[in-house]
Each structure stands twice: as structure tokens, then as C-alpha cells.
């Protein structure tokens, strides 16, 4: 039963990632959590300084949303398959014990 519960949590986590990706895909374009306007520039400072226009930032945000959504979908599918297999195995063991 614990394996099934963990599997369901994994499925929910994957679906949550998918939901976040969908929301971010068409959401407002942001730079470090701040909404950007059409003529704004996003400057990131870290190990390499980078400046991106509104259009570049929007494209990057959409690209990351697709990546996160794909990963979330794969996680959900993987945990779903593993959970179904665990449930089948548990049912098989129960039938063997009853026999």
C-alpha cells in the first residue's frame, strides 16, 4: 500500500509540474519575478552577465515551460506505470496467499 501511495504522490507531482508549465507558457513575461513590458530589457547578473529583450525573454520562458511540462509529463507517466505494476503485483501476491 505504501508503494501505491508513493506512486500516486509521484503522479501528482508530475501533474503539478505540467500545470505550472501551462500557466507559465501563456503567463506574463517576467524577469526575476518582475513583469516586463514591451520595451524592457532583462539583465541577469551571475557568473555571466546577460541582457535579453522582451521578445527573447518571452521565447526563453516558453522554451522552459515546454521543457518543464515534458519532464512533468514523463514523471507522471512513469509513476503511473510503476503504480499500476505495483498494484498488480500486490494483487497477485494476495491471490497466491489466499490459494
UniProtKB/TrEMBL annotation:
Domain of life: Bacteria
Transmembrane segments: 64-87
Entry keywords, A to Z: Membrane, Transmembrane, Transmembrane helix
Protein name: Transmembrane protein
Species of origin: Thermasporomyces composti
Amino acid at each position: 500500500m505504501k508503494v501505491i501511495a508513493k506512486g500516486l504522490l509521484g503522479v501528482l507531482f508530475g501533474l503539478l509540474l505540467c500545470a505550472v508549465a501551462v500557466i507559465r507558457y501563456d503567463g506574463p513575461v517576467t524577469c526575476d519575478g518582475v513583469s516586463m513590458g514591451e520595451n524592457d530589457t532583462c539583465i541577469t547578473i551571475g557568473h555571466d552577465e546577460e541582457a535579453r529583450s522582451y521578445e527573447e525573454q518571452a521565447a526563453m520562458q516558453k522554451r522552459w515551460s515546454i521543457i518543464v511540462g515534458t519532464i512533468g509529463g514523463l514523471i507522471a507517466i512513469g509513476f503511473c506505470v510503476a503504480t499500476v505494476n505495483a498494484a498488480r503485483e500486490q494483487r497477485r501476491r494476495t491471490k497466491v496467499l489466499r490459494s
